[in-house]
Every structure is written in structure tokens, then in C-alpha cells.
């Protein structure tokens, strides 16, 4: 049975010494780092608000250069036998595995997620993804997919799983003979820029992968570029709608992976302790920065009190703090903007009459932090719950008769 005991752990911080963060970073275009023509911006450590580096912003001219570089590279990359493209992908996968500790530390510093998540989940899957698609590169024709690539892929990724989202986008595109211009989120650009260095280390032909950093304006310029053949976006529904409007009426292929929230449903015959573990993992993994986070909890009335008691007890044992400490369960919220949004939605829940409960924890004085929080009796904020906030409702024996 879950208990409310929080064990004391000695600090077990991962060393930052393995990571060499440069004072400033340029854009990665045609195999080289170059200065951007936009206004530079800073990326910060969300756990401490420490400025990590100054990042170049790509304007329309820079985006055009990147797309042209990708188009030139596509001529030879698309004609290269799949078995030869696979060699580059295998090489990238091996380098990622070899530099996994460095990548994991950098991801946690720039994103705020606990090191054990970036070390044990994100980075191993990144490497595995490149290994997997390396194996597909010479089998496309045999599987019935054909061997005709689309061309230049414009890819825009979010801040919640920066390097993992990059792998999801780049690996299959390269395996199929496409070239890429990718824009990482402005709050988490560092692992994408380190990936650019890995591309150089792997001797990937210039222009096959291009990384342009910046905010919304950079993404708009990339998505709207007339010489892009495919747009792939993961992020908010609002931005996804804007992208759909931009590409409407063009010949561009589009895939949109947008936001959504999932509900946990607990019936009276459920193993409660196991259910509680699933609930906690579903909402507090990665600080709730997951597009399918379980932010809604529907519990049958007859077991609601028991579930609520055990859930609060389990939430009280979660350790919040330094993302680089291996004992940390919950790290920092990714940005001040996201923290403001979470607080705003929580206030809406209060105003709507929901009962708020937060686990008692000492929040660091610096950085972006929010305690694990549960709203009960009502659905909580009607404008969709966000990271670290979960709403609970009860239902009668017949599903659909909600209370």
C-alpha cells in the first residue's frame, strides 16, 4: 500500500562538467554554423533562471538560405542508395549513444526535466529511433512505399521533449531521402544545436540537415517558404490551425501533432494502488509537459474517497528540486510563460469553486516551479488543465451519470 513517508536521500547531482555550453550559437546551414540576421535571444536554465547562452535568430533571409541549401543537398541525397543513407543514420545513432550522458545533462539543464528522465527515457529512445530508421532506409521499395522522396521538409518541434521530437522528425525524413530544415523551440535550442555538431562529426553531407533557431516569426517564415515540400509540426492546437491556414491551397504535404489531454477512469474493481501509480505517472511525468498528460481523473463514487486519500498520500512523497539530482521526481516548469499559464488556470479553477489541494513542498526561490496540485469536486479549470494540475470528478455506477 502506498504510504505518506518521504524518505530522505543524500544529494546525488549529475556533474555539469561533461557539457561545454558555448557563450553563443549561430544557425546551422549547409553544414556550417553561421550568424543569423535576426535579433539574438537568450536561453535560460528554468531551474535557476541562469542565462546559458545567446542564440542567433533566423529571419526570412536566413530561412531562405537554409531551404536553398536543403534543396541543393536533396539532389544527391535523394539519389543515394538507401543502403548508403543508412550508413549515415547508423553513424549518427552510434554517436548519440556514445554522447548520451552529455546530451542528457544538456537536455535537463535547458529544459528543466529530471536527469533520470532525460538519461533513461529521452536519449536512449533518440538513439534507438535513428538505429530503427537506418534499418528502413534500404527496405522502402520492398515494403511497398516506393523510393520517391518528397523533397525539403520543414520541421517545427516543441520544448517538452526537444531532442526526442527532433529524432521523430529527422530520422524518418532522412531515411526516405528527404532533406530537412528544422526549427527547435526558442526555450530549448541547445540539444538541437549539439545535434548539428553530431551531424558534422558523422560527416553528413552539407545541407542534408539545417537547424534554424528563433521564435514564431522564424517558424512562420519556414512553414510559408514556397520551396518547402513537406511541413511537420508538433505543438499547440492554435499554432497548428495557423499552419493549416498557411499551407492551404498549396501542394505541401502536412502532418500536425497537436495538443490534447487524456482522462484516467477508475472503477470500483480497480487495483487502487496500481491505479494511483498510473495516475501519478500520467500527470507528473516530465512536469506534466506531455500532449496526452492525464490531467482529468474520473473515479467511481464508491471508491472516490479511498482513491483521493491514497493519491494525496502518494503525491506527498514526490521529490521536487534540482533536475540534475538523480533523486528528483519533478523538475522545473520549462519557462516563465508556461508557469504563468499554469497559475492562471489554477486561479480559474479556484474561481469556479473547485477545491484545490497541493502537496506540501519547499519550492526553490529561483527558477520556475509549481507544486503537484489536484482539484476536486468539479472539473477544475474549464479551459483545459495544464502541467502539474489535475482535476477529479466522481461518477455513479452507470457511466454517464456524472456527479
Can you walk through the features of this model?
This protein is an alpha/beta fold. The protein has 2 domains: 24-257, Aldehyde Dehydrogenase, Chain A, domain 1, CATH 3.40.605.10; 263-395, Aldehyde Dehydrogenase, Chain A, domain 2, CATH 3.40.309. The protein contains 11 helices and 15 strands. Strands 8-7-6-9-10 form a 5-stranded parallel sheet, with helices on both faces. Helix 2 runs antiparallel to helix 4 (115-136). The longest helix is centred in the N-terminal third of the chain and has 22 residues, at 115-136. The protein is globular and about 65 Å long. The two termini are 28 Å apart.
Our Rg estimate from Cα atoms comes to: 22 Å
Q: Would you report the number of β strands?
A: 15
Order of helices and strands: EEEEEHHHHEHEHEHEHEEHEHHEEE
Helical segment tally?
11
User: At CATH's second level, what is the architecture of the largest domain?
Assistant: 3-Layer(aba) Sandwich
* Coarse shape: globular
User: Which strand-content bin applies to the residues?
Assistant: 15-25%
Q: Specify the structural class.
A: alpha/beta
Assign a percent range to the helix content: 25-40%
Mean of the pLDDT scores? 91
The tally of domains stands at 2
Largest pleated sheet: 5 strands, parallel
**Name of the CATH class of the largest domain:** Alpha Beta
- Provide the low-confidence segments as ranges: 397-403
For the termini, the CA-CA separation is 28 Å
Fourth-tier CATH superfamily name of the largest domain:
Aldehyde Dehydrogenase, Chain A, domain 1
Strand order of the largest sheet: 8-7-6-9-10
CATH topology of the largest domain, anyone?
Aldehyde Dehydrogenase, Chain A, domain 1
